[in-house]
Each structure stands twice: as structure tokens, then as C-alpha cells.
């Protein structure tokens, strides 16, 4: 059993973020989640924050630090989609996704790494996507933001690797969440045909990889992109 750590997960009230929070709680860690509305899972400290608002993040971090201690593991998971074909995509649809999915990660990282540098210990896990490297029609904004996380994790590794801090990207493929469940069945079947595993992942399958990356067993892994996609993005 690894020593209990203070873990902060952005966007931890539903989908993959919620599963990640549940996994860390089950492993005995001190877990906080940022939410814009609603609550994280039982056993988590829920703090209201919006990754596009630096002041709200400062407030959230102050609350987490006061109640659970300095953040040692950061999981940057909060994200939005505004899918549409390039020709129809507005400036706002592009910029909104970049502001949450990329600039938001930068804001959270900047705040979280202060304590990590002081402690000479940290785990940064950015939740990317298979489409960050594979690409996806209708997701120029989303895939651009997700591929940028790779450069971010690798730059953090070069900057902070000597201070006991690792930074990695976990790139999920299609996951069984409310979002995929809402797709028409024919479309779901079409997607499954492209996945060598022949099925969508359970959110817990992503959560377990994230928790492992935060553990002592993964202390020499940094700047990596770990796919959890059933083989969908092989070679990318």
C-alpha cells in the first residue's frame, strides 16, 4: 500500500472524473474534486471552482490545503466539447474548448506545482484523449487541446523532473459514460467496429491506470502518453 496522498481531481462530479475520485478514495487517499455544480462521490471533499476563473481556483486550492493538506497528486480532467465541422465552427466554439481544456489545465497546474516543488514530490496526470493524436472529424478544437497536453506534460517533465515530480497523459478512447450512452445505437456499433477490443471501456478501467500512475510503482515514468483505448489509437 502506498502512503496516503492528497489528490485533487478537476471535474470530479461525473463520468471519468468521478470514477477516478472513487478509485483514489477506495485506495485510502485524501481526495478533493472541483465541481461547477453538484457533488463529487461520497468521501470526497467537493470544492466549487471553474478552471476558466483563476480566482475561483485559488479559493478552491486554499480550501483543499486547509482541510486535506498540500496537493500532491493533480488529475486535470475537467473538459468540454463543442463538436462541429471546421467550416461551421465559430471562433467562440473553438476558443471555449481551448479555454477550458487547455488554458484551464495550465491555470490548475501553475497553482498545484507550487506546493509540489516545495515538497519535492508530485504527480501530474493530464486526461487527454485518443483523438489528441488520432484526430477526429468535427473535433478540431477538442483534438487540438488534447494533443497540446502532450507537449505540456513533456515540458513539465523537463522543468520539474529533478524535483521528484512526474507528469503524464492518460489518453482514453471511447468510455461507457452518459455521453456515449446518448449516441444512437447504430453509431455506437460503428465505433465499436473500429476498436480492436470490440467494446467501450468502463470508466473504472481508466481510473485504475490513473491511480497506478500516481503510485510509487510508476515513479520513473514521466512524459509518457498512456493509451486506455482498446487498441483504437495504435501507432499514434
UniProtKB/TrEMBL annotation:
UniProt keyword annotation of Oxidoreductase present: yes
Segments forming a coiled coil: none
Class of enzymatic activity (EC top level): oxidoreductase
Annotated InterPro entries: KR_dom (IPR057326), NAD(P)-bd_dom_sf (IPR036291), SDR (IPR050259), SDR_fam (IPR002347)
Entry's EC annotation: 1.1.1.100
SMART domains: PKS_KR
Domain of life of the organism encoding this protein: Bacteria
Gene Ontology molecular functions: 3-oxoacyl-[acyl-carrier-protein] reductase (NADPH) activity
Keywords: Oxidoreductase
Chain ranges of the Ketoreductase domain: 5-178
Family: Belongs to the short-chain dehydrogenases/reductases (SDR) family.
Name of protein: Dehydrogenases with different specificities (Related to short-chain alcohol dehydrogenases)
Source organism: Rhodoluna lacicola
Phylogenetic classification of the source organism: Bacteria, Bacillati, Actinomycetota, Actinomycetes, Micrococcales
Amino acid at each position: 500500500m502506498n502512503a496516503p496522498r492528497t489528490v485533487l481531481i478537476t471535474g470530479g462530479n461525473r463520468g471519468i472524473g468521478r470514477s477516478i475520485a472513487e478509485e483514489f478514495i477506495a485506495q485510502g487517499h485524501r481526495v478533493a474534486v472541483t465541481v461547477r455544480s453538484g457533488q463529487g462521490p461520497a468521501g470526497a471533499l467537493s470544492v466549487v471552482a471553474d478552471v476558466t476563473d483563476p480566482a475561483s481556483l485559488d479559493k478552491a486550492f486554499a480550501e483543499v490545503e486547509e482541510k486535506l493538506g498540500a496537493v500532491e497528486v493533480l488529475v486535470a480532467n475537467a473538459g468540454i466539447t463543442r463538436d462541429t465541422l471546421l467550416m461551421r465552427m465559430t471562433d467562440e466554439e473553438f476558443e471555449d474548448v481551448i479555454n477550458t481544456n487547455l488554458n484551464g489545465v495550465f491555470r490548475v497546474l501553475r497553482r498545484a506545482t507550487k506546493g509540489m516543488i516545495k515538497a519535492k514530490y508530485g504527480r501530474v496526470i493530464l486526461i487527454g484523449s485518443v483523438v489528441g493524436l488520432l484526430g477526429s472529424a468535427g473535433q478540431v478544437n477538442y483534438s487540438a487541446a488534447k494533443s497540446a497536453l502532450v507537449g505540456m506534460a513533456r515540458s513539465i517533465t523537463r522543468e520539474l523532473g529533478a524535483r521528484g515530480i512526474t507528469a503524464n497523459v492518460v489518453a482514453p478512447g471511447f468510455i461507457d459514460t452518459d455521453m456515449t450512452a446518448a449516441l444512437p445505437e447504430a453509431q455506437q456499433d460503428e465505433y465499436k467496429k473500429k476498436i480492436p477490443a470490440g467494446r467501450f471501456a468502463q470508466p473504472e478501467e481508466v481510473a485504475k491506470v490513473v491511480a497506478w500512475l500516481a503510485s510509487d510503482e510508476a515513479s520513473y515514468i514521466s512524459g509518457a502518453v498512456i493509451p486506455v483505448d482498446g487498441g483504437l489509437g495504435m501507432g499514434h
